[in-house]
């Protein structure tokens, strides 16, 4: 069922009335109507599309998923598409697509699923009821303010997750596989967040234009505040994107550094082990040599092994090769 509301002279007069009564309310002066559909069918939107004069392509866009965030001005109405985002318990970014049709007296919202908390938007409208005299501009501000605040909150939580990732990179014994998985998940979330945030700058900026006529003088400062939040969320998202790239590069550099240290130590020990191998190999010749078949030859080779190996060990430790 569609959710409906009627404002008259800036005062909430009724709600949850039948969709068939919308045409009667729109014919009355100083009225503003809001309708909300969740996962509707083409038949659900047919009546309101005919009432508001919506183009069939606009209705088709509202029914299909994965449309780009945009604001398109049509004859007699504007079509808006935006994405709300949030992070679930596992840290995965969850988005919900919202389409809206805006006229001088009506706002029609079409949610693709229940992930969009429309009750939170209604609560904002009720909390700022003094501004309801601005009509559709008031309703549109509450809707966009909720969406942009979600973008800002998601960016803040992802910033905290990146700080935790930074601490993990510089642990004494970092878990590289877990860090790689986490960094790739954050990068994927940032790409999806960026797709939702960046188009909002142009969207809100277009709504604030005088020729559009949806924002009156009373609501202009509030839309400017939303626009400022959009800019901050956009800049924050871009900085986080650069930061996660830097962390990934740092992680790879640290792994390369650790590998070089291991190879250096292994090479040093191999050089030390080569000394007794060379000496015992020399004394294993099948021709006479100094100390051949005598006890002092054995002690001489043993002393040579200990002295040369000890000297190499002390030299490598002093050069920090071991």
TrEMBL record:
It comes from the Bacteria. It is a multi-pass membrane protein. The keyword Nucleotidyltransferase does not apply. The chain crosses the membrane at residues 266-284, 296-316. CDD domains: TmCorA-like. InterPro entries: CorA_cytoplasmic_dom (IPR045861), CorA_TM1_TM2 (IPR045863), MgTranspt_CorA/ZnTranspt_ZntB (IPR002523). Keywords: Cell membrane, Membrane, Transmembrane, Transmembrane helix, Transport. It is found in: Cell membrane. Its main location: membrane. The keyword Hydrolase does not apply. PANTHER family: CORA FAMILY METAL ION TRANSPORTER (EUROFUNG). Belongs to the CorA metal ion transporter (MIT) (TC 1.A.35) family. This is Magnesium transporter CorA family protein. It comes from Saccharopolyspora mangrovi. The lineage of its organism: Bacteria, Bacillati, Actinomycetota, Actinomycetes, Pseudonocardiales.
């Amino acid at each position: 069922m569609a959710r409906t509301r009627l404002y008259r002279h800036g005062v909430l007069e009724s709600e949850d009335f039948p969709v068939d009564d919308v045409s009667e309310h729109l014919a009355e002066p100083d009225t503003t109507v809001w309708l909300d559909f969740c996962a509707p069918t083409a038949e659900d939107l047919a009546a309101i599309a005919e009432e508001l004069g919506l183009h069939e392509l606009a209705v088709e866009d509202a029914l299909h998923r994965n449309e780009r965030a945009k604001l398109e001005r049509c004859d007699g109405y504007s079509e808006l598409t935006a994405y709300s985002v949030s992070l679930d318990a596992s840290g995965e970014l969850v988005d919900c697509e919202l389409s809206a049709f805006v006229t001088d007296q009506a706002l029609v919202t079409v949610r693709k699923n229940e992930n969009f908390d429309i009750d939170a938007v209604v609560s904002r409208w009720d909390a700022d009821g003094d501004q309801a005299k601005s009509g559709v501009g008031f309703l549109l501000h509450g809707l966009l303010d909720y969406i942009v605040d979600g973008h800002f909150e998601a960016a803040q939580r992802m910033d905290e997750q990146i700080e935790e990732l930074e601490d993990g990179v510089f642990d004494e014994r970092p878990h590289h596989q877990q860090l790689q998985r986490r960094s790739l998940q954050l990068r994927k979330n940032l790409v999806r967040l960026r797709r939702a945030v960046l188009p909002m700058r142009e969207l809100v900026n277009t709504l604030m234009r005088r020729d559009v006529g949806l924002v009156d003088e009373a609501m202009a400062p509030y839309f400017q505040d939303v626009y400022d939040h959009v800019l901050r969320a956009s800049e924050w998202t871009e900085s986080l994107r650069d930061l996660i790239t830097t962390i990934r590069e740092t992680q790879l550099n640290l792994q390369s550094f650790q590998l070089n240290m291991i190879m250096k130590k292994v090479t040093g020990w191999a050089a030390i082990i080569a000394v007794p191998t060379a000496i015992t190999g020399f004394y294993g010749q099948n021709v006479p040599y100094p100390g051949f078949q005598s006890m002092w030859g054995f002690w001489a080779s043993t002393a040579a092994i200990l002295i040369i190996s000890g000297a190499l060990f002390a030299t490598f430790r002093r050069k920090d090769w071991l």
